[in-house]
Amino acid sequence: TGPATVSPTGQPTGASQSDIAQGGAYLTDAQGTRLHDTDHSLKAGPRGPVLLQDHHLREKITHFDHERIPERVVHARGAAAHGVFRGYGSAAQICKAAFLGKDVETPVFVRFSTVLGSRGSADTVRDTRGFATKFYTSEGVFDLVGNNIPVFFIQDAIKFPDVIHAGKPHPDREIPQAQSAHDTFWDFVTLHTEATHHTLWNMSDRGIPRSYRMMEGFGVHTFRLVDAEGGTTLVKFHWKPKLGVHSQVWEEAQITGGVDPDFHRRDLADAIEAGAFPQWELGVQTFPDNPEQTFEGIDLLDPTKIVPEELAPVQPVGLLTLNANPSNYFAETEQVAFHTGHLVPGIDVTNDPLLQGRMFSYLDTQLTRLGGPNFAQLPINRTHAPVNDMLRDGMHQTAVHRGVAPYRPNSLDGGCPFLAGAGDGAYVEVPAEVAAGRKVREAPASFDDHFTQPRLFWLSMTPVEREHIVAAYTFELGKCYEQAIKERALKVLARIDTELCEQVATGLGLPAPAAGEPLADPSPSPALSQVGQTWPPD
Ligand code: HEM
Prior knowledge:
- It is an enzyme of class 1 (oxidoreductase).
- The chain is an alpha+beta fold.
- The protein has helices spanning 16-22, 55-65, 160-167, 183-191, 196-203, 250-259, 263-273, 330-334, 353-369, 452-459, 463-478, 483-496, 498-508, and strands at residues 78-87, 105-114, 129-137, 140-147, 217-218, 223-226, 232-241, 279-288, 294-295, 298-299, 315-324, 347-349.
């Protein structure tokens, strides 16, 4: 790579990082002993059997055997870049986070990804794209772990394993949905109709972006910002690309996918290397923090809903510039660990049940993926703020901790760490009211409307965009083997728009159902009263 290369810590590549593994003029083993030969095993005579004694052979092969770590369970294929975020200061009224201050510059690392494909899959497939940003702020790491589509398939994280199982390659043949049978994906999204909105965005041109540099990004959930006086505002985060939003047409995506499956990662790296640094403005839609957490009748805790920009314009708060390619894919792009719980003072989560589940999932999966609890010490994950935690030992511990009393308070270590208040930069969760109620497995009634916003999206499309959407549904549903799934999908489309439904039905050679035909759910969740539990008990 050219001059734009930096080390995982965000510093220009100099001696320090590469010296760990590649210092000195001589080839050595892992202990630093110089080697005279790395091409021949130690044998009993030139044609003889290989000796067990050959430690260099065993070290070399053993290390190689363990080179791979598990790929991410989702978003396995990605490409990333370093950059800088500069705050405009325009958010200072509503958010005390230091990195949003005027002209404050914060190093960032951004990883773009597809969701469903494996690490070696093609970039250009129809899918959602991840847009995850790690801000190394002076107050700790803030991760904005978003997508290029502003809504999500499900309203509750408990369904995440289900939607991903339905979308991943078939368990029997391991053939990806994107290339073969599509029954499980369409089965899921037509039985869980809250997926209709996200699916429609996927079937639109947004599902096949031209470039990572030309995608919007969305935090999806509603977050809660806190100002210096403790006042709160609900927001949705948006990334707006300076290059505009562009897509491929389907035929183009097929050709680029065949000719260059690395199309998007190459495009990103080449642009940065050429000095054409991609930029995005970060913006927020703001909503008063009312007890209902609704805005213009839209439930802000429902991640399948947007708030139209006509109702709440996106207000720019800072500029992101990606200006350096990673110097090592594994050390940076593969080992980076994002988490919705990496928050800094001034930014808090809401009760969106999808976000609440994500707060658990990321750390849990990274314990396996990155081999134990110490991955925050990896250079790419290291905060740029001072760390003085009480976390000790564990697999892959590389810190040598001092002191004898890793607990607080203690009277032994001659200066036990201070605790801070909000005024000294402590992260204090907003003591938001928790609605009283019964402990139940239920969604609120405000989560029930699955079709109004998909209809708005469809009606906002130009004629050519509609043509693309019809073609996408026709093509993708045409890959289903099960007639019943195609018929159910048409009933869902009829609830979005009659014309959309009729055109796809024609493409599939099936009759269009009448609007409002019931969607048969083979196994609806029973109401609480039906499962034999009442409160207070009888
Ligand atoms: C990974 C976004 C919902 C579990 C990711 C990544 C992104 C992302 C961008 C890739 C991060 C990277 O580049 O390393 C989203 C968005 C969601 C969502 C925008 C909804 C609005 C969920 C839910 C769960 C989940 C509900 C589970 C309950 C995971 C896991 C990974 C992941 C396990 C892999 C993380 C790793 O191995 O480091 N997600 N996700 N996601 N997501 Fe989500």
